[in-house]
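Batch manifest line 440
LIGAND: CU-O-CU linkage
JOB: complex structure
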Amino acid sequence: MANHCGAMATTTAGVNQVTRSEGGDVVRYRLEAGEVDWQLAPGRSVRGYGFNGQVPGPVIEAKQGVPLEIEFTNRLPEPTVIHWHGLRLPAAMDGTESVQRLVQPGETFTYRFTPPDAGTFWYHSHANETEQVEKGLYGALIVRAAEELALDGEQLLVFDDLRTDKSGRIAKFGGLMDRHNGREGNVRLINGTSEPELTIAAGQTERWRVVNASSARYVRLALGGRTFQIIGTDGGFIEAPIAATEVLLPPGDRVELAVGPFENEGEVLRIEDLPYYRMAGKKGVERFGTIRVTSRQPSTARVPSRLRELAPLAADDAPVTRTVTLGFKMSLRRGFDFVVNHERHHHDQPVRVGELQVWDVVNETQMDHPFHLHGFFFEVISVDGRKPAFRSIEDVVNVGPKSTVRIAWYPDDRPGMWMYHCHILEHHASGMMAHFEVVR
Ligand code: C2O
Ligand code: CU
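JOB STATUS: finished
ARTIFACT:
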């Protein structure tokens, strides 16, 4: 889909191509999970897991308000399940162990839902995640509005990092240290390729959709110090473009940018991940790839000064309905646990359809945790009592050490079992998650 994408994932011989037919106004895909030779760079591959023989899996192109049907077959040697991250779908389609039986090797399960929101989403394994997502079981899902903001071009950049060992294979999980810090990798990938070169024509402005699919890495994205515009977040457009030279994406997060114009043909800019101190992980500036500015092309791109109107979900002084604490506890059996409200895999109180939720998410630990709510968007009301710089719709928000993020969200009529968790996959696995029911 990317007009200038120098970084399409290289695939092994296509097991099952994506089949897509739009007869009867249904967008259909077929996905098959299986083992793949994941080519990180020419001549360099690892044995991983992919969808339809590739990492990331195929980009799913859905349409806002049009039913989407994904027939999924598991050809892995272990059970799995696919979660549709950020989509407001029925509980039964959320793709977690609490709403469906895991899809066993050889089995097929068909996901059916109608994406109600345009934006940049992703899908990933939600079983044995710390292994399956690390090995490559993820892909992007774009929901297009009937009328899309088209700039001069569009690119999708799915960030990930992978840890390889001395022999070049995917490293074994690093035990307690990785459980604590989350697994960060030495190989930095965009769209499954190690440090690719993307291109953009001089004079043009593109729409970039960015996903952070890393297990634990915070991507503090910069484009060689150049200014770009933030135009959207997890739940689509923000109200007005924000000029920035960097943007922070915790694991699971998405952002949409307007990038360019760059004037100098032949110039090469670095796609960088700036230092982010989270008591763990990378310390210096690291390179994810480069952008080469190619020969000048005419531009028709116009980034509107107003992108959307977002009515506030809750009054600034709306009463808090729930406090969620993210904590850390020593454990005799496991060394330590990451917990919610002092327990692993917490069972939280139900919420009722139609009742506004105002939650204080309190981080009692010394580390950052990216809080993710399944199936519903929220608005950040305040961070440590202060209003965020701009209003946005999110399903992931970073909660800094010893910090409190107040969010508001509205349970519309989709009863069933839902969950929230830290999107550092190792923290999620070690217990920093909760189930709760939406009831009528
Ligand atoms: Cu992308 Cu349960 O998460
Ligand atoms: Cu965490």
